[in-house]
Specification:
Length: 468
């Protein structure tokens, strides 16, 4: 029998505290719950100066009905850790994940989310806990490839990050990751193939060829990756560098003499070489971009300069800015294309990289131009945190290149990164306070302020579970 005495705060201001045994208090709260007096049980629980939550959970044992009532009590009392424990015992893992998250226990929240197959929520919780590798795996399962790539990058799994960045079209970010992969490891060949492919798609054929020739001339294929090597040789042949391509295929055949693809490719290349010689065509000179120390290609994140200048992101670290940029896409818009629709919730923040956009108000047949914005200027920042309809529409004036940051992806990033979210919301709060101050000054000059809107108290829902 527990006889520890517990202090209970007075119910009204100025009333005295009183003391009674912990056992008696727990019995009293359980009696209240059995009588359906949830509010009374919650009131006593919240006024206890000692934490009796674990005693209540112990008393419940295998009593599912009591666990439900305890979950309701803990929820009403805002003791989210105990509410999560009760929900977990009941098998309500979705609620348990929510409450562990509210209690700041992101690892347990992730575990609960994983149990119900909510890969995105589990990924967010692991990311908040700093477990970037686990988060990346779950994000990838949940098809959130942008967040998966970012978390793989932060966990040091650079090649996996690069593969995903390539898959979602973030090739500048992929290139930055590939350049940080150790060159002496077993992944060097795949890294080189990915780099060549990125350079080729960016229209830098000379750089792509130089990188391929550097690999073919300085490295040797392995028995586990002959097809990657042959990919490089085919690319070189496509650029017109037949002698270098033939040398690459020979290295594979020296390693695996009966390799079917290598033999077929060698026959094709030799035929093309003979045709070239018969036509007396000048051989294509090998590119000279590769240096003795190896070819290094430095990528630039398009639109990053404009992004980092935004007041909204002024407090973010370099890594946080990169995480935000990884969510962005560069889009080409032609004259008249709409970025933001009037009277509909905005979907994204837009930053002009090149060209001009027009902000205008449409009222029936009347169109009023409100602003014209150019390089580095932006629209739609409120849509990142507010689903209210836009008061005006925004269209492209002529051809425009713009950086687009979608609200959905940005919201997931904020949910997964508390530090970044705090910085962003702090700036938003500052801007809103400035606007409110300006509005108040205008109202004061116009004759005083009227009464503000009534607000409802922030009280949780009545119950989580019905009695029984």
């Amino acid at each position: 029998m527990i006889t520890e005495r517990v202090a209970i705060r007075g119910k009204t201001p100025g009333s005295a505290d009183y003391f009674t045994s912990a056992d008696k208090v727990v019995d009293g709260m359980i009696n209240f719950l059995n009588q359906g007096r949830l509010e009374d049980a919650t009131d006593v629980y919240m006024r206890c100066q000692a934490d009796l939550g674990f005693m209540l959970i112990t008393r419940a044992e295998n009593d599912q009905a009591l666990y439900k009532q305890l979950a309701n009590l803990f929820f009403r009392a805002r003791d989210f850790q105990k509410a999560a424990m009760a929900c977990e015992e009941l098998g309500a893992y979705d609620k348990a994940a929510q409450f562990y998250h509210q209690a700041g226990d992101h690892m347990l929240a992730a575990d609960m989310a994983a149990r119900i197959g909510d890969h995105l929520l589990a990924g967010q919780m692991f990311e908040q806990a700093g477990q970037y590798g686990h988060a990346a795996e779950l994000y990838e399962q949940g098809e959130a490839k942008d967040r998966a790539a970012s978390c793989f990058e932060r966990s040091g799994k650079l090649l996996r990050a690069a593969r995903l960045y390539v898959n979602i079209g973030k090739e500048d970010r992929a290139l930055a990751c590939l350049q940080r992969v150790p060159t002496e490891g077993g992944d060097a060949l795949e890294v080189s193939v990915l780099v060549v492919g990125i350079l080729e798609r960016k229209g830098a054929a000379d750089l792509a060829a130089a990188k391929a020739i550097e690999v073919i001339s300085t490295q040797r294929p392995s028995t586990t990756q002959p097809d990657l090597w042959l990919d490089l040789a085919e690319r070189l042949a496509g650029y017109g560098y037949l002698p270098q391509a033939i040398d690459g295929v020979k290295k594979v055949l020296d390693l695996v003499i009966d390799h079917p693809r290598a033999n077929e490719l060698m026959a094709t290349l030799q035929t093309r070489s003979m045709e070239t010689q018969n036509a007396q065509a000048s051989p294509v000179a090998a590119p000279t971009a590769a240096t003795e120390g190896g070819l290094t290609v430095v990528s630039v994140m398009q639109g990053f300069d404009q992004l980092k200048q935004l007041a909204l992101f002024r407090d973010l670290s370099l890594q946080e800015l990169r995480d935000v940029h990884a969510l962005c896409s560069v889009q080409r818009l032609e004259a008249g294309e709409r970025l933001i629709a009037q009277d509909r919730p905005g979907q994204a923040l837009w930053i002009v990289i090149k060209g001009e956009i027009e902000v205008r108000k449409v009222a029936g047949e009347k169109v009023t131009q409100l602003a014209q914005l150019g390089e580095g200027e932006h629209v739609g920042e409120m849509s990142l945190v507010d689903a209210a309809p836009a008061s005006a529409e925004v269209i492209a004036k002529g051809s425009v290149d713009a950086l687009r940051l979608d609200q959905e992806g940005f919201s997931r990033l904020l949910q997964a990164n508390n530090n970044l979210a705090n910085k962003v919301y702090r700036v938003f709060l500052h801007e809103l306070c400035e606007r409110l101050r300006e509005t108040s000054d205008l109202a004061a000059r116009a004759g005083g302020l009227g009464g503000g809107p009534k607000t409802e108290p922030l009280i949780p829902a009545q119950i989580l579970f019905e009695k029984g």
